[in-house]
Amino acid sequence: MEVLFLQLFNGISVSSILLLIALGLAITFGLMNVINMAHGELIMIGAYSTYVTQNIFMDLFPESMFGWYFVLAIPVSFLIAFVIGLILEFTLIRFLYGRPLDSLLATWGVALVLQQLARTIFGAPNVGVTSPSWLNGGLTVLDGVVFPYKRLFIIALVAVTLFIMYLYIYRSNAGRRMRAVMQNRDMAACLGVSTRRVDALTFAIGSGIAGIAGCALTLLGPIGPSLGTYYIVDAFMVVVLGGVGKLIGTVFGALGIGVTSTVFEFWTTASLGKVLVFVCIVAFLQWRPRGLVAMRTRQLDS
Amino acid sequence: MQLRTLTPQRIYILIGYAVAATALFCAPLYLNDFRLNLLAKFLAFAIVALGLDLIWGYTGILSLGHGVFFGLGAYAMAMYLKLEASGGRLPDFMEWSGLASLPLFWKPFESFGFAVAAGLLIPALLALFLGYFTFRNRIKGVYFTILTQALVIITTTLFIGQQALTGGTNGLTGFSTLFGTPLAGEGMKHTLYYVTAVLLIAAFVLCRFIVKSRFGKVLRAVRDGENRARFIGYNPAVYQMVVFSISGALAGLAGMLFVLHVGIISPSMMGIVPSIEMVLWVAIGGRGTLVGAALGAILMNAAKSVFSENYPDAWLFFLGLLFVIVVVFLPKGLVGLFSRITFRKREESEEHEAAAAISHPAVRAGNG
Amino acid sequence: MKQRQQSAILQCEQVTVEFDGFKAVQGMNLHLEQGELRFLIGPNGAGKTTILDVICGKVKPASGKVVFKGEVDITRKKEHQIAELGIGRKFQTPSIFPTMTVFENLEIAMSQNRGVFAALRAKMTQADRERIIAQMVMIGLERKADWRAGLLSHGEKQWLEIGMMLLQEPEILLLDEPVAGMTDKETDKTGELLHEIAKSRSVVVVEHDMEFVRNFASKVTVMHEGKLLKEGSMEEVQGDDRVAEVYLGKRRDADVSRSTA
After folding, report:
1. Is B82 exposed, middle or buried (0-12, 13-18, 19+ CB in 10 A)?
2. Of B93, B94, B292, C211, which is most buried by a Cβ count within 10 Å?
3. By C-alpha distance, which of B67, B262, B328, B348 is closest to A103?
């Protein structure tokens, strides 16, 4: 019973982290068809932003305030990643629309540069971020079953992010313009939507969410310049499994991978578990090559 | 175009090949042992690049999984060498991991013939297997690329995780001899160099044959318009599987040679970064031309060994920027740049059309 | 009925196609005789292209079946299998292989063993070369053999594609608006090509251009909202009230837009 609870919680917790990382990708890859391999580095930037915010609090503010740094770190991480995403879109990505494989290679180059930059600024070794004290400890559900607050916090953070994104994409004017451009660029342009602006904004929002993910990852352990590379492929698998074009697919993709990998790793070893998850994904794609939730149109070849 | 007359251009190309072959075979005369060994390693890399160009440049499918095929070939050879070095005893790392006897699947690697066959066939079969489950369902473009990258991750985690069977993070090293002759000896080094040079030329000839055959034309047709090829009666999936498999086998061959020259293989040499670097060699040299791919591999690695020794930090910046610049501004790589300078008279638009089609395979494939 | 089935090279029976609940084609029947030239007309959204898609395997019907030569059920076959059986398809937008030369485009389209190993061993024989050259002469591209196909004009691309189809030697040729976007001169030339083609094989042509259709004395099938509306000669079809209502009424608009285009 305890084991079941714990595994279920672990599965959801892993899923929530995967989801947070994949959400930004779901936007840049799913909606814009840009394969941003530097997404992991935007996560890394978010993590270092949190690290810097923490240091500033330590140096400038009284100790009693320290616990609050994390609350500020979330928007700071978002903003910094957002701005860097904007710069990236303006200088590089816009030349690569419609060339997904090339965007993959070029952004990988960007990822290398950003990693090296982080190494130059912060040094190669990992740095630790002290979690605020109010996130230590956990919620005791049953005897011997404790849900750490940090994990619960991440789950809540993902839920809130997802909700805000839902409101933005499906309920706001800006979101409507975004969907219009992504579904029919020429038509949207004819109707007076500035596609350049929408592209830039969409990419930047995707990047900003990567920043939030990076901020959340500081709760789970030390961070380093190559932080992003550990997560990037998993995140892409989530999007591929979930299907392109709709947020709900990404949610299911993350849950699917998160829960199955937790189960497999519990039954076997960590490395075998990964193999089994991959086999499951390939098997699943045999059945639905376009992922869980695919947008269907009459144009079967789009 | 069908007539095989000796136009001046053809003569230049033939002279070029002759010079390259001569330079290759005379290298031991003017390079010291250290440099010769490096060159031999680069030649092995050039074989990977040729295979990668077949699948990417000619068929329009980007594989980021060639590190795995390379690694599997390398491990096959390394297992043979390790067993020979252990001289009938249990390999050292297995003892340290507490294994009592040699695992069953290691046993056949006592035979050199088996090791070589495995080094070619295992990558080829893995590629065929992955290709079967993806191309058949028209999982292609970016999706395929991401799956190959996932393949890299799981293979490396598996190799690291199974410490007792694979040597874990350290990989396999500590080889001594091949057929009883020390690997480090000068004679052996020269022989291995010549073997690699000959195999590179053989791989080049094979790839050229494939590319020039009607098979190669169908590959380009699949790249230009997969559905169109389907409607004139070709089954693109089969062509893609076969070429992916050949490409994997070439990477395996390169891996075997690599181990002989370098004397070590570890999971980090088959990981994400080496896999994507392989793609960069082809991109820089010029995808869609065999000479470009091979030269790209040799030049890039030469540059790497010069720069990364002296300025390791700057090298990564440089590598990253190079990636961006080549992809955005030089979609046809150095060969494209070179031919643009030499054959200026050719219509610009022609160059454009080809470059556009090569750099948009995924887009083109979508058009019925 | 039996007599008819024997001579029919293609039969579509009660074919229904659904796209997410929307029925693009509903219970469509189409019988094509050996050597027949058939025009498929109808307003936009009538399901003309969709029925071609079903025949060549691009779209799988929800119900109904397609039988080739009275015996081979091709409803569930893959595109390349159907193509190999002898059904060629030309799409509305010219789809040739842009980075390959005109000659190479024709070379791979030429009827031959489509297997991987056959393609590896294939040699260009003198007979093959003559065939391709003859085809290039027929489509008027013999002087552009070495051109990259991507550089051809729109009309030339269409002809190249028709040439590719012909070298493929299909028994049935499915053409989707072969003269769309062509100049009058190009249209005339395409008409000549079509006359030539129809001599030796069965052809189904989807067409909007009524002037073009009138040049051929052949059977016309009118589709409307996914169903068969009327089948007969051009005169019969034009005399039909329902056709005039759904189609010819709109034709005048179409003509206006054509002349201003």
Report:
1. buried
2. B292
3. B328
The number of folded domains in chain B is: 1
C23 → chain A, closest CA residue: A298
d(CA B36, CA B29): 10
Q: Is C223 on the interface with A (CB under 8 A)?
A: no
pTM of the model: 0.86
Cα separation of C255 and C261, whole Å? 10
Closest CA to A83 of A240, A175, A204: A204
**ipTM score of the complex?**
0.82
In a domain, B301, yes or no: no
What's the CATH superfamily of C1-86+207-261? P-loop containing nucleotide triphosphate hydrolases (3.40.50.300)
From first to last of its 302 residues, chain A has per-residue pLDDT tens of 677 888 888 888 889 989 988 988 888 887 788 888 899 999 999 999 999 998 888 888 777 777 788 888 999 999 999 999 999 999 988 888 888 888 888 998 999 899 999 998 988 888 888 888 788 877 887 777 788 888 888 899 999 999 998 898 888 888 888 888 877 778 888 888 888 888 899 899 999 999 999 999 888 888 888 888 888 888 888 988 888 777 888 899 999 888 888 888 888 877 788 888 888 888 888 888 777 776 554 333 33
Q: Please, where are the H alpha helices in B311-367?
A: 312-329, 333-342, 348-359, 361-366
B291 lies in a domain?
no
Residue B226 lies in a domain: yes
Q: Which two tokens stand for residue C94?
A: 């010219």
- Looking at the domain assignment, is residue B320 inside a domain? no
Q: Do C80 and B235 touch (CB under 8 A)?
A: yes
CA dihedral sign of residues A278, A284, A289, A292: negative
Residues in C 13-42 with any Cβ partner in A closer than 8 A: 19-20, 22, 24
Best residue of B231, B238, B346, B360 to probe chain C, by most C CBs closer than 10 Å: B231
